[in-house]
Write a structure and sequence with these properties.
Radius of gyration: 21 Å
Oligomer: single chain
Number of helices: 3
Helix content: under 10%
Largest sheet: 5 strands, antiparallel
Strand order of the largest sheet: 1-8-7-6-5
Shape: globular
Number of strands: 35
Length: 470
C-alpha cells in the first residue's frame, strides 16, 4: 500500500503558516470534508472523542514519574514511583477523566504532562477487502485533565483477524519527538512541540521488503542515542531525526514484541525475539552476534526478551505461547542455554523481573479461566506460586527497594488489582472493576495516575496518588 501523508487535526490555536504544509487545522476553523480519493485525509475532531474530565487543577508532573514508551522508562515494565496508594474504596480509585480513542491495543506513553496513544476507526472486513480503509488516529491529551491537545489521522487497515484489530504498538516519546507504528507498518515521527506536525515517515513493508505479519506490525520503537530501532521482520535502525536507514539485519519471520537494548563491556546490543529465533545484534552496525532457534505454536511470539545483569553475568529470558520458556547466559558473544521448560508461557504480556523473580501471566492455555498469574524463580526456572482469575491480563511493577514493590494488574475483563511483589505468597492488596469488555493492553502509571483502556478504545485515568486518594 502506498504511504499516506499524515493529516493532523489541531484543537488548539494553530499557526497559520502550518495550515497548508502540514495539513493542520485549528478548532476554530474546521476544514471542509476531504475528498475520499485524496491521498491525505484530514478528519475534524469529534466531541465524542475528546476526554471527559471532572473539574480539576493540573499539577506540574515530575520528570522521574514519566512513562515514555512501551513498558515504561527502561522498557522493563517497572516504575520507581512510590507516591501512590492501593488503599481504595470498594468502588475503586477515583476516575479523573475518560476518552474514546478508537479500537486497538496501543498502551499509553506519558511525558511532561502529555499522554499519547493510538486507536482506529472501526471498519468491516468486507469494506477493508474492497480497499475502503478507515482511519488510525494518534492522540495527544493533557495527562492530568484529559483535555484534547492534538490528533493526527491517516488511512490504514484495521487487521481484525481473531481479534478486533487496530494499532498494537505504543507511541515512543523522545524529547519533542513522538514515534508511532501502524498495523500496516506506517512509521511516523511527529513533532509534539509543533502540535503534532509530521516530521518524517517511512513505510516498513516497502522500506525493508517485508510483508505485513498476519496480525500486523505490533512491536513498539526503541530509541538508543540517535537511533530508532524497530523489529519488523528485519530488525532495522533508522536515524531518529531523518528516518534514514542506518542498518538492517537479514529477514526473519517477524514477532509481535519489542526489541530489548542492553550493554556489555561498553558495547550496546539489541536482543529481538522474532518467530524464528532469539537474535542478538550489535547496536552500532546491526551485525549478528548470535541467535538460537525459537518457534511458537501458530507463529505467535508476542513478548520481548528480558535481560538481567548481575555479578558480571548477562542472562536473557524468553517465553512464548505453548513454547514454554528458556534462559540463556550471554557469554563471550554466545547464547549458552541454562534451561528450557514449559513452566511459564507468556502469550501476550511480557513478564516483569524483580529481585530474581519473574511475575507474569502464564497463558499456555488460551482459555482465560485457565490462565494464571505466576511468580517464577528466574534462575531455577520453577513456579513459586500461581493464582487464577486474571485471564489473559497484563501487569507492571511499581516501587523500590526501600518502599517495597507492588504489581499493578489488569485482568482481560477489566478488573484492576494491586498484588504484593512477594515471592513467598500471592497477596491481593486491592481490586476493583474499572473497565468492561476485552482488556489486553498493559496499563501505565505516571505521577500518581493509572491509565487503562479496553479494546473498544475506552480510556480511563484513575487517581491513585496518596494525597488525593479517596
Amino acid at each position: 500500500m502506498p504511504m499516506n501523508r499524515a493529516g493532523c487535526k489541531l484543537t488548539i490555536v494553530a499557526i497559520a503558516a502550518w495550515l497548508c504544509s502540514a495539513g493542520c487545522f485549528s478548532a476554530a476553523a474546521e476544514p471542509a470534508s476531504p475528498d475520499p480519493a485524496s491521498a491525505t485525509t484530514v478528519r475534524p475532531a469529534a466531541s465524542s472523542k475528546a476526554g471527559h474530565a471532572e473539574s480539576s487543577v493540573a499539577i506540574a508532573p515530575k520528570p522521574d514519574h514519566d512513562w515514555p514508551m512501551w513498558r515504561g522508562p527502561e522498557g522493563t515494565g517497572i516504575s520507581s514511583e512510590t507516591d501512590w496508594t492501593s488503599d481504595w474504596p470498594a468502588t475503586g480509585p477515583k476516575q479523573l477523566w475518560s476518552a474514546e480513542v478508537g479500537t486497538g491495543f496501543s498502551s499509553c506513553a506519558i511525558v511532561a504532562g502529555r499522554l499519547y496513544t493510538l486507536g482506529h476507526e472501526p471498519n468491516s472486513p468486507e469494506k477493508e477487502k474492497a480497499g475502503q480503509l478507515t482511519l488510525d488516529t494518534v492522540w495527544c491529551f493533557d495527562a492530568a485533565t484529559g483535555r484534547h491537545i492534538w490528533r493526527c489521522d491517516y488511512r490504514c487497515k484495521q487487521v481484525a483477524d481473531l481479534n478486533e484489530g487496530g494499532p498494537g504498538a505504543t507511541p515512543t516519546v523522545d524529547g519533542d519527538r513522538v514515534y508511532t507504528i501502524s498495523k500496516e507498518g506506517q512509521l511516523f515521527c511527529f513533532d509534539t512541540a509543533r502540535q503534532g506536525r509530521a516530521v518524517w515517515e517511512q513505510e516498513l513493508q516497502s522500506l525493508l521488503d517485508v510483508p505485513m505479519p498476519e496480525w500486523g506490525f505490533s512491536g513498539s520503537p526503541r530509541v538508543l542515542g540517535n537511533l530508532l530501532i524497530v523489529d519488523a521482520g528485519r530488525t532495522v535502525a533508522l536515524d531518529k531525526l531523518t528516518g534514514a536507514v542506518v542498518w538492517k539485519t537479514g529477514k526473519y519471520r517477524p514477532g509481535y514484541g519489542t526489541p530489548t537494548i542492553f550493554s556489555v563491556g561498553g558495547q550496546s546490543y539489541v536482543a529481538v525475539l522474532n518467530n524464528d529465533a532469539l537474535l542478538v545484534v550489535r547496536a552500532g552496525d546491526g551485525s549478528e552476534v548470535d541467535h538460537v532457534k525459537w518457534e511458537t505454536e501458530y507463529v505467535t511470539t508476542a513478548v520481548s526478551p528480558i535481560v538481567r545483569q548481575k555479578d558480571g553475568q548477562t542472562s536473557i529470558f524468553i517465553s512464548g505461547f505453548r513454547a514454554g520458556c528458556a534462559l540463556f547466559d550471554f557469554k563471550d558473544g554466545k547464547l549458552v542455554a541454562r534451561y528450557r521448560n514449559k513452566a511459564m508461557s507468556n502469550q501476550l504480556c511480557t513478564s516483569v523481573l524483580w529481585h530474581d523473580v519473574l511475575y507474569g501471566i502464564d497463558g499456555a492455555n488460551s482459555a482465560p479461566s485457565q490462565c494464571k498469574l505466576i511468580a517464577f524463580d528466574f534462575d531455577a526456572g520453577k513456579v513459586l506460586w500461581k493464582e487464577r482469575g486474571w485471564g489473559l491480563g497484563s501487569l507492571l511493577l511499581a516501587g523500590d527497594k526501600q518502599a517495597g514493590a507492588r504489581l499493578i494488574v489488569l485482568s482481560d475483563a477489566g478488573r484492576l488489582g494491586v498484588v504484593a511483589a512477594d515471592p513467598k505468597a500471592y497477596r491481593l492488596l486491592a481490586s476493583a472493576q474499572v473497565l468492561d469488555g476485552k482488556c489486553w493492553t498493559m496499563p501505565a502509571l505516571a505521577d500518581g495516575r493509572i491509565y487503562c483502556r479496553n479494546t473498544a478504545g475506552h480510556l480511563v485515568c484513575l487517581d491513585v496518588s496518596k494525597a488525593d486518594a479517596r
